[in-house]
Design a protein that fits this description.
Helices cover 32% and strands 23% of the residues. It is of the alpha+beta class and 524 residues long. The protein has a domain at 318-484. The protein has a seven-stranded mixed β-sheet with strand order 2-24-10-1-9-5-8, sandwiched between helices. The termini are far apart.
Length: 524
């Protein structure tokens, strides 16, 4: 009996590692290379290097340790300060990229949130301790199926769905959000079937070419799928998948490839870490070497290599670095994530590193009172909530209130109009020429923050920490002395992008504008 229990514990641990290391989904592909070949005038290859930032990239380039990235920059354009979505967490960012909308339209609020209709705490897997508390199966189902099939709104189309409607094909390799029009049967390992994580006929809706670690491979000989390699959720695996498409002359109209390794290194070592960039560059060299020359690689494809968000240094002092909202709100009954919502629960915390949702499920508690309590914690940056159509914002160190809503006499650089009142310094906004909004420390702050309040229903506040700090709670990750993200601040927001092979440019330098831009490239 003890032996059997030990095996079960080990299996659960393996499943936890799968979700912790990857947080991405799956599709089957051994039959996919039999699809009819389509040769568009343009093929776009997008490679996302998780947490790629300008400053460490420049350091790697200066030291000559990123020759492939340098080659792309020399032969294309470099945008150092693209604006991510909000919160700056992968699942929301991926949804914004794929749909060309912010969270108010695509309806994926964050990596961790609370569904008031189902009274369910949602996590796609932020930390192994959280996964153990929630249960690996629950987190797996949320990230694998509910995210793409239910949470991602069916009122918006993904880039994969639109490309398919054009009669073209696309590929998704190790990306978290992947919804497409094709039914893909998953390759289900026997252990997952035995322990009822998946049935053997499990499927997802995905693009024509779909790769997701051990669960779905394009290259049947791809061996980077063992336990120590995160079951395929690693850069070597992703590289082998795209390399296989190149070798088979099957690169589709659009390919989205996710390199995840850099993010882990930055979280651990800090924002100046370059090792992950150097290793990603080697993967790019491998891909370019599949062509007769690197110049031929550029001639055959439009290459887009970019990050997805920035990260912010977390001070190397546990007591100072970590803002425990359970202590800040100690006078209230806070939901335990290992249990369903209880009658006595008053608050649910949706912790996303440097950003958090604070859900008030006790109707007798006023948002304004919670906001005033949060304001006493000086490591908290902005505190916001919605009243009717108006979003109100407080600061941890600035006086007054700032409020805004859509449509008004003030306009920003993105062609969005707003009605604003109060202390604009709270969001570091300047007003030029009497009506023009200029953003400072919080790029595209109004649209990004506004979208968060319309991403899902509920009575909640949105809070961010100041640079140097991050929120913690039950089972949440900690990055003391390393780096973290999630907030609205520019350090978490900006990411670089390199483009070769097209003269077209995005309407604006934001993640939300990239889908439309790529579709225009394919129409050239």
């Amino acid at each position: 009996m003890k032996y059997i229990v030990s095996i079960i514990v080990i299996l659960v641990f393996l499943f936890v590692i799968i979700y912790f290391n990857l947080q991405r989904t799956t599709g089957e592909s051994n039959h996919q290379l039999d699809l009819p070949h389509v040769s568009p005038s343009k093929k776009v290859v997008l490679i996302i290097i998780d947490s790629l930032m300008d400053k460490p990239l420049q350091s790697a380039l200066k030291e000559g340790k990123a020759p492939a990235l340098q080659f792309l920059i020399n032969n294309g354009r470099y945008y150092p300060s693209m604006v991510s979505s909000y919160p700056t967490m992968s699942v929301t960012i991926d949804s914004t990229f794929l749909t060309g909308t912010y969270a108010d339209k695509h309806k994926v609020p964050a990596l961790v949130w609370y569904d008031e209709h189902k009274k369910r705490f949602i996590s796609y897997g932020s930390d192994k301790r959280e996964i153990l508390k929630l249960g690996a199966k629950q987190v797996f189902e949320e990230s694998m199926f509910y995210l793409n099939e239910q949470h991602l709104s069916d009122q918006v189309k993904t880039i994969h769905e639109e490309i398919d409607e054009k009669g073209l094909q696309s590929a998704s390799i190790n990306t978290l959000v992947f919804r497409g029009n094709k039914t893909q049967i998953l390759h289900v390992p026997k252990l997952l079937e035995v322990f009822h994580f998946l049935n053997k006929n499990a499927s997802v809706k995905a693009p024509s070419y779909f790769s997701y670690g051990i669960l779905s491979k394009l290259n049947p000989k791809n061996r980077y799928t063992n336990f120590w390699q995160g079951f395929g959720f690693n850069d070597k695996y992703a590289t082998e998948e795209l390399k296989y498409l190149i070798e088979q002359d099957r690169v589709p109209s659009f390919s989205s490839v996710y390199f995840s390794d850099n993010d882990k290194k930055v979280h651990k070592k800090g924002v100046n870490e370059t090792k992950g960039i150097e290793e990603a560059d080697k993967r790019l060299q491998t891909l370019f070497n599949q062509y007769a020359s690197w110049e031929k690689a550029l001639k055959d494809n439009v290459w887009i290599v970019m990050g997805d968000s920035g990260q912010t240094s977390i001070v190397n002092d546990k007591e100072r670095a970590l803002v425990d909202l359970r202590k800040v709100l100690k006078d209230y009954q806070i939901h335990k994530i290992s249990k369903p919502i209880q009658k006595q629960d008053q608050i649910v915390l949706g912790l996303n590193e440097r950003m958090s949702f604070i859900y008030i499920i006790d109707e007798s508690i006023k948002r304004e009172f919670i906001a005033k309590q949060l304001q006493k914690e000086k490591r908290i940056d902005i505190i916001a909530w919605k009243e009717g159509k108006t979003v109100k914002v407080l600061s941890g160190d600035k006086r007054g209130v700032f409020s805004f809503q859509q449509t008004g006499k003030f306009s920003d650089q993105y062609g969005q109009s707003w009605k604003i009142e109060g202390n604009t310094q709270i969001l570091d906004i300047a007003i030029k020429n009497g009506h023009s909004i200029v953003y400072g420390d919080y790029p595209d702050a109004l649209a990004r923050l506004y979208s968060s309040f319309y991403s899902h229903t509920g009575n909640f506040l949105v809070v961010n920490t100041k640079p140097g700090f991050e929120f913690i709670g039950e089972g949440s990750p900690k990055h003391v002395g390393g780096a973290s993200h999630g907030s609205l601040h520019k350090q978490d927001t900006y990411f670089p992008m390199i483009v070769t092979g097209t003269e077209l440019e995005p309407k604006h330098l934001r993640m939300v504008d990239l889908k439309e831009w790529i579709l225009h490239i394919l129409d050239e």
